[in-house]
Amino acid sequence: MSAPGPYQAAAGPSVVPTAPPTYEETVGVNSYYPTPPAPMPGPATGLITGPDGKGMNPPSYYTQPVPVPNANAIAVQTVYVQQPVSFYDRPVQMCCPSCSKMIVTQLSYNAGALTWLSCGSLCLLGCVAGCCFIPFCVDALQDVDHYCPNCKALLGTYKRL
Fold first, then answer.
1. Is the residue at 125 inside a domain?
2. Residue 23 falls inside a structural domain
3. pTM higher than 0.85 for the full model?
4. Could you tell me if residue 146 is inside a domain?
5. Which residues contact 6 (CB under 8 A, 6 or more apart)?
6. Model confidence at 156, in pLDDT bands (50, 70, 90)?
């Protein structure tokens, strides 16, 4: 026969491989230094033998240090600063500074400078038969006061002019 090809079996006796070598045998780790003997469990080493016969360390108990009262202790006070709220002609959700509750403000419309200017302008244009009082009925021409619905405190005012 000729030389074996890539897909032909080699001629001769077949050798069954044995177990591969261990890592230490392959790399040669600790080949010059002998391994130290394992510690014997018992009272000499501080190990306690458990119910399964294996050694285990005794539990370490940690005592928490007792805090020492400091005569120079400083009391810390937290101060919350509320951002300024801009009031417009719509209800505003905010924390009431009087009752410290989260609320949505109630609105109240009052005659302001724009209402009176509108009334005066209508009088000058000739609406003297009562039509000059129409601005007092239109909320869009009046100032707006914001009140807390819980404690009824005045929280702010929106002036149109």
1. yes
2. no
3. no
4. yes
5. none
6. very high
Q: Is 96 annotated as a binding residue?
A: yes
Structure tokens at 50: 């458990």
136 is a domain residue: yes
Range of the domain at 153: 93-158
Q: What is the pLDDT of residues 29-86, one digit of tens each?
A: 555 555 666 665 555 555 555 566 565 665 666 666 777 777 677 788 887 776 788 9
Structure token pair of residue 59: 């539990």
Does residue 3 have a pLDDT over 60?
Answer: no
Q: Mean pLDDT, to the nearest integer, of 103-130?
A: 93
132 marked as binding residue: no
* Residue 121 main-chain phi, psi, to 5 deg: -65, -40
Closest CA to 152 of 111, 114, 120, 108: 108
The C-alpha atoms of residue 26 and residue 20 are separated, in whole angstroms, by 9
Contacts of 39 (CB under 8 A, 6+ apart): 45, 47
DSSP 8-class letter at 98: T
Question: Stretch 130-152: mean pLDDT, rounded?
Answer: 95
- Helix, coil or strand: residue 25: helix
Is 119 known to sit in a ligand binding site? no
Q: How many residues does the chain have?
A: 161
On whether 131 is known to bind a ligand per the annotation, the reply is no
Contact status, residue 109 vs residue 144, Cβ threshold 8 Å = yes
